Amino acid sequence: MFELPQLPYSFDALEPYIDAKTMEIHYSKHHATYVTKLNEALEKSVEWAAKQLEEIVKNYQSAPENIRGALRNHGGGHLNHSLFWPSLSPQGGGEPQGKIGELIAADFGDFIKFKEQFINASLSIFGSGWAWLVKDANRKLVITTTPNQDNPITQGFTPLLGLDVWEHAYYLKYQNRRAEYIEAWWNVINWELISERL
């Protein structure tokens, strides 16, 4: 059975950009619920309970119909958030250096152009979903979005950096001001980890 991963920092560590109360609810209520519901679904299938999380999310469409939706939604929610938390850091922000910085410059022109495109993608999501920086099969960096808790691995991409734009990720502090939340998020991105994911 899957478990809620431990946060690599305290709930208030990302203040003032992401507030402690939002972090606490987002992690201990929302993410925890995805884990609980995923495990409940997997209790109905010995075969699927033996699989790794990425395998479950990538291949959920071939799962038995009675658990397919839960694997997509709750498996995706667990995977997305397990990628999300470590990608944030109290010492984060700034422009990415090293290999990830070089690839962003090569594939988008420069960091400013990349940031503009990523922000536009994040703002374009209707309702709940995620914006992603991913690597495609040719090792090219691409910006994409997914609805709800879908993950880019279902589209053949390798996710490097994801931004949660569900309202529960920001509403306590930013209310309906998604653009302000997105702008604040750039100050806590753990570029060192994103570079390692390459």
Question: Overview of this structure, please?
Answer:
This protein is mostly helical. The protein is about 50% helix and about 10% strand. The chain is built from 9 helices and 3 strands. A 3-stranded antiparallel beta sheet has the order 2-1-3.
Overview features:
three-stranded antiparallel sheet, 9 helices, 198 residues, globular, single chain, mainly alpha
Quaternary organization:
single chain
Indicate the structural class: mainly alpha
* Secondary-structure element series: HHHHHHEEEHHH
Cα Rg: 17 Å
Termini separation (Å)?
A: 28 Å
How would you summarize this macromolecular structure in one to three sentences?
This protein has 198 residues and is mainly α.
What is the element layout, followed by pairings?
Layout: H1 20-42, H2 46-49, H3 53-58, H4 65-84, H5 98-108, H6 111-124, E1 129-135, E2 141-147, E3 158-164, H7 171-174, H8 178-185, H9 191-197
Antiparallel strand pairs: 1-2, 1-3
Helix pairs in contact: 1-4
